[in-house]
Design brief:
C-3 sterol dehydrogenase; NAD(P)-bd_dom_sf; oxidoreductase activity, acting on the CH-OH group of donors, NAD or NADP as acceptor; alpha/beta; oxidoreductase; two-stranded parallel sheet; 7-stranded parallel sheet
Length: 461
């Protein structure tokens, strides 16, 4: 039987995209939120931190799968609100799900839960949240994620947490609003840092797609039984015996980690190598007799050359045999290559220099408002200077009661490496980004232009 979905926070930015994708594929979906912005699906109004209100919506909708995206915006200075929604609210959702015998829970966490202000380069899910969180938002997100993962297997519930990074796209009123404000104020020539730091931006439709994949695969059994089953099946076997002589990976496990994956080339495009049977014609006086075949082979034939490339790993690789066995031994009740009880980073897989995406947005805005920006060189501010300016602006803001446009967090955020390894999501969830960065920016600007024409912006130009 098909699942019946309840998207908690379904009126929000990401939640609405998830609802739309579920509707597009013909699923039964309802929304639980504090405000209703669309009327195309059943809506339940309620307080996420009230277990009974959540349970009532679950019973009335007949929900079998919860997708929990509700969260206050990351830029608020309200730790109490973050804790109420992201921690108390998430625990109330878990309790209501167990009470109503809901089978699945997909939780939207954040890539920021592992961020402590230092560079994060190609990190994977093994890195735990820092002891000193960067801010109240990510601290509360980490606590909510922890509660969700601990709830896996509680009653009849299966859970998974996704960690998207730098979400943008149509409907975004945080990143896009900030970039538009800078464009409107003619401050696009300012740069903090040297722009050599790599950053993960993720198109919102890709994040929504990953949530649907996670929901669909939560009940898929693990590739091999967890090691705890070995202890129950073999009389006299102890944990020390398993540690000294763990079972080898199964053929299915080995196939999962050794099959070559296609390149992520939505933005960069495909670059094919010409051969004698598949190539452009080049300069010629008379075309070769098989010209049409050569061109057809080169232009239309899919490039599957990656399938012949071996997957080379070291023992430090997150999906190496050594690493997987270490994860199995660390938690004998869970398989590292299953969906239930695990977390996954979700990005576009296209990390770029931090300031490149804002400049792509401003370039697209030039087409909407031609002549607004005047050509000028970049004014590059070193990180140390940026932190000093942010400190002074925060002091002024504390005295005047106005929020400064530049904060120490924003300076740090724009100057560090923050990109993530999504191979686990690709191999276990089957996740592949559907929309590249350039196309995602174009779609966001098209939406923004439509909002502007209709007069729905709070910022005027």
């Amino acid at each position: 039987m098909k699942d019946v979905y309840l998207v908690i926070g379904g009126s929000g930015f990401l939640g609405r995209h998830i609802v739309q994708q579920l509707v597009d594929r013909g699923d039964n979906v309802s929304v639980f939120d504090i405000v209703q912005r669309n009327d195309d699906v059943p809506f339940y109004s309620g307080d996420i931190s009230d277990q009974e209100q959540v349970a009532t919506a679950l019973r009335r909708s007949g929900t079998t799968c919860i997708i929990h995206t509700a969260s206050p915006p990351a830029a608020l200075n309200d730790p109490a609100l973050y804790w109420k929604v992201n921690v108390d609210g998430t625990k109330a959702v878990i309790a209501a799900a167990v009470e109503c015998n809901v089978r699945k829970l997909v939780y939207t966490s954040s890539a920021g839960v592992a961020f402590n202000g230092a560079d994060l380069t190609d990190i994977d899910e093994r890195l735990p949240p820092p002891e000193q969180p960067m801010d109240a938002y990510n601290e509360s997100k980490a606590k909510g994620e922890e509660a969700v993962i601990e709830a896996n297997g509680k009653g009849n519930l299966l859970t998974v947490a996704l960690r998207p990074a730098g979400i943008f796209g149509p409907g975004d009123r945080q990143v896009m609003a900030g970039l538009y404000r800078v464009f409107q104020d003619n401050k696009t020539h300012f740069q903090i840092g040297d722009n050599t730091n790599m950053f993960d931006w993720t198109y919102v439709g890709n994040v929504a797609y990953a949530h649907l994949l996670a929901a669909d695969k939560l009940e898929v059994p693990s590739l091999a039984p967890p090691l705890s089953t070995v202890l129950t099946e073999k009389e006299g076997q102890t944990e020390d015996d398993l540690i000294m002589s763990p079972p080898s990976l199964t053929p299915t496990e080995l196939s999962t980690i050794s099959t070559a994956l296609p390149p992520l080339d939505l933005t960069t495009g495909k670059h094919r190598i010409p051969t004698s049977e598949s190539r452009p014609l080049g300069p010629y006086i008379e075309p070769p007799p098989n010209a049409s075949t050569l061109l057809a082979n080169f232009e239309k034939q899919p490039d599957n050359s990656y399938l012949s490339r071996p997957v080379v790993r070291t023992r430090f690789d997150p999906l190496s045999e050594n690493s997987l066995m270490r994860q199995k031994l660390t938690n004998m009740d869970k398989h590292p290559l299953q969906v239930a009880g695990n977390v996954f980073y979700i990005t576009n897989g296209e990390p770029c220099y931090f300031w490149d995406l804002p400049r792509l947005v401003w370039k697209e805005l030039d087409q909407v408002f031609p002549g607004h920006r005047k050509p000028r060189g970049y004014l590059v501010m070193p990180r140390s200077v940026g932190l000093a300016v942010a400190y002074l602006l925060e002091l002024v803001g504390w005295v005047t009661g106005k929020e400064p446009i530049l904060t120490k967090f924003r300076v740090t955020y724009s100057c560090v490496d923050r990109w993530h390894n999504i191979e686990k999501a690709r191999r276990v969830l089957g996740y592949e980004p559907q929309v590249g960065l350039e196309e995602g920016v174009r779609r966001m600007i098209d939406w923004w232009k439509g909002e502007f024409v209709e007069g729905r912006h709070t910022i005027t130009h």
